[in-house]
Design a protein that fits this description.
Elements lengths: L1 H19 L4 H7 L7 E2 L3 E2 L8 E2 L2 H8 L4 H4 L9 E8 L5 E9 L2 E9 L5 E8 L2 E3 L3 E2 L6 E12 L3 E13 L7 E14 L5 E12 L3 H10 L11 H9 L2 H4 L6 H16 L1 H10 L6 H6 L9 H11 L2 H10 L29 H4 L8
Parallel strand pairs: 1-4
Antiparallel strand pairs: 2-10, 3-4, 4-5, 5-6, 6-7, 8-10, 9-10, 10-11, 11-12, 12-13
């Protein structure tokens, strides 16, 4: 009898421990999210956008994505792109790591975000096209067809996690022929998580196989800025350094890399407007960031109105006067933006819309 009672008590304790120790379930329950529709991660990060996921309502998405995706920060704005939570992991510090997928066109972005013990957003970064297979495209001045495949996964460590990302390029001589592997880029991103839930990108290890062109490597390097934690203010100086490199300054403006570079400038400015404008004040003769910022209108953030408002709000005295003078020719007013069209052309509203999705999330068109 005593033995039976002990077995019952052990079973009850085991069930209670299992329920309370179910990683990430308390976080999901508090949000009203069905835990059966979300992966509860163990030691490995095997997160698939083809697997079951929970589609978020506006309130849930605003809370989970509002800190990393500007369009979700204002819950009065209707967002049409689908946002879902795919997987969670309870962190040793008591916070939670979540993988959130937002569709866009034929692709999308995987946001990897941390939340403190109270469920409040702490930090995050973006992996565009977490898993992607491009069926085929043609490059300019080429009769060949190309295809690309991207795949991400990883594992958890004692103080964080690593993400392993593989990007492969394939080629075919004709549209109907089988694609043959040409090159592969393997990158391992090592992140640490602080007790406050802040992310730290410790290292990026690169390995490559085959003939990877300098153009592909540069484009991939530009895309790595999105993989830096949003809380890492050093991104501004790193972008400054990149902007002054010869290979960056020589990018053809018709190349997709150029559009992605301007998209990155916009994204960094959106998070650190004061840091970027302060840098302009401290480097008045620089040929790095200023020319890029001047050309970045139309990518969703930088505009005449935004520049004027930020100068007014964030600066005063000599800095404000310098910035007003230095940027006075940036971005014409809205009524002037259509002057480049020939007389008689009809321009419908929306023709001058953001190119961010075309250039950045248009990675499905290939590298």
């Amino acid at each position: 009898m005593k033995k039976s009672i002990l077995l019952v008590v052990a079973a009850v304790c085991l069930a209670a421990c299992s329920k309370s120790g179910s990683k990430g379930q308390a976080f999901l329950d508090e949000l009203g999210i069905n835990t059966d529709s979300v992966q509860i991660l163990g030691d490995t990060i095997d997160v698939s956008t083809d697997s079951i996921m929970y589609h978020l309502n506006n309130e849930q998405a605003a809370r989970l994505l509002g800190g990393i995706a500007p369009e979700w920060a204002n819950d009065s704005v209707e967002v049409t792109d689908l946002a879902s939570i795919v997987a969670v992991k309870e962190l040793p510090t008591g916070g939670t790591l979540a993988f959130l997928w937002q569709e866009s066109g034929d692709g999308g972005t995987m946001y990897i975000c941390t939340y403190d013990s109270d469920g409040k957003y702490a930090d995050g970064m973006e992996f565009v096209n977490w898993k992607m297979l491009n069926q085929g495209f043609m490059e300019d001045n080429s009769s060949a067809y190309f295809s690309e495949k991207e795949d991400c996964g990883g594992r958890f460590t004692d103080n964080g996690f690593t993400i392993h990302r593989t990007l492969s390029g394939m080629k075919s001589d004709t549209e109907m022929a089988e694609f043959q592997p040409q090159w592969t880029i393997d990158k391992t991103y090592t992140y640490a998580v602080t007790p406050e839930g802040k992310l730290q990108l410790k290292s990026v290890d690169l390995k490559k196989q085959g003939n990877v062109s300098a153009q592909v490597l540069l484009r991939d390097e530009i895309r790595d800025f999105a993989k830096m934690p949003a809380s890492d203010a050093s991104i501004v100086e790193k972008l400054n350094t990149l902007a002054q490199r010869k290979d960056v300054q020589n990018i053809d403006e018709e190349d997709r890399s150029y559009g992605e570079l301007l998209w990155t400038v916009n994204s960094v400015y959106d998070r650190y407007p004061k840091d970027m404008m302060k840098w302009l004040c401290q480097h008045k003769d620089s040929n790095g960031l200023a020319p890029l910022m001047k050309k970045a209108d139309g990518y969703g953030v930088l505009s005449r109105e935004r520049i004027d408002a930020d100068i007014e709000k964030l600066f005063s005295g000599d800095d404000a006067n310098y910035l007003k003078e230095a940027t006075k020719d940036w971005f014409p007013q809205k009524q002037d933006t259509h002057q480049e069209y020939e007389e008689g052309d009809v321009v419908e509203e929306g023709d001058m819309s953001s190119m961010a999705e075309v250039e950045y999330e248009g990675e499905n068109d290939g590298m």
